[in-house]
Amino acid sequence: MSTHTDLGPFLAPATFVDSDAASIREFAARAVGEETDPVKQAVRLYYAVRDGIVYTPYLDFTSPDTYRASAVLAKGAGFCVGKAAVLTACARAVGIPARLGFADVRNHLCTPRLRERMGGTDVFYFHGYVELHLDGRWVKATPAFDRALCEKFGVHALEFDGHADSLFQPFDVTGRRHMEYLHDRGSMPDVPADEIMATFDRFYPALTAATAVAPATQFRREAEQASGA
User: Is CATH 3.10.620.30 the classification given to domain 8-227?
Assistant: First the structure.
């Protein structure tokens, strides 16, 4: 079993997982309230980040603030990596060891506008999620899609109980393919922002060039149109 020393890097503040930021600590404290059990604290933090920060893929991916937890929290909107950074930072702020996990995935329900910005592909490189150290083991949690967006897209909102891994379901509510994991990039103590920016610039030049950021709810409106709701 891992010792406290082994978990040191996953408890400490980092450049993008800035768990020592006052705003992160205050947000985390409000979310956990009087709860002292780490598993229940993690669950409260998960839902606070999942639904308290709007998911949007229309961001300035050349800006370090797109990947920094405190900046994403201040904006109130972010994509999977930014939201994962917030949850990781919040967990560390209350003493729960946490790290980031990354994988390349195929999203079969990508909207037409986003697919065009991504050069016609539905492969998302560096999809980000969180791994929380609870009851002596690492548990995966994915706070990316907020409940309101899931309802527009017709996919199940991911739940998290602190015990079972919470990863994107392969099918939506009608049985259509939703998310397919292609390649596991492993887990890290901080966001590898430079590597992500270089990868996005290589594979999604139109997306990274589009620094005129859309409203945070733009993707939610597109999801509604795409699902025919």
Answer: yes
Domain boundaries in the chain?
Answer: 8-227
pTM for this model (two decimals): 0.90
- Tell me if 141 sits within 8 A of 129, measured CB to CB: yes
pLDDT in tens, 43-102: 999 999 999 999 998 899 999 999 999 999 999 999 999 999 999 999 999 999 999 999
